[in-house]
Amino acid sequence: MANEKTPGGLAGAPKNFLLPYILLLLSRMPAHGYDLMQQLTSLGFLTLDQGNFYRTMRQLEKDNYVNSEWDTTSSGPAKRLYSLTDIGEQYLQQYADEMQRYQGMLSQFFNMYSAMFDLYMLPVRKEGTHVEKHNQTNRSDQDEPERES
Q1: Which helix or strand (DSSP H or E) is residue 32 part of?
Q2: Total structural domains in the chain?
Q3: Is residue 136 a part of any domain in this protein?
Q4: Is residue 126 in some structural domain?
Q5: 50 band by pLDDT with thresholds 50, 70 and 90
Q6: Is residue 102 part of a domain?
């Protein structure tokens, strides 16, 4: 993770949204792993594997993006409480900046993509347009009886 960075920012296109979402959730408040998994599931991470999730959390801690401590305040076994570090906050900001840049690129792509189809589509005639009124005028001329000369 930390060693994936390139001088220009993040490594390649954003492929893994899990990491920034974890950091974003932790930027709001510290949380237990189980609570993070539930929040991530509600955000659309439907195939989140528990083993991979906790391996990811350990890697984030090793990279100093998150910190954890044992929470013994609740009844039952102690649970790890994860919080965002300053380095994690900086990474999240950098990721958000990159995503904003990608958003602009995606908008440009879809504008160009849509324009390509506009070139091949026949113009749609809507009621009330000049074309429609012109056709009505021509039809009314045809409906009039012919005059004898």
Answers
A1: strand 31-32
A2: 1
A3: no
A4: no
A5: very high
A6: yes
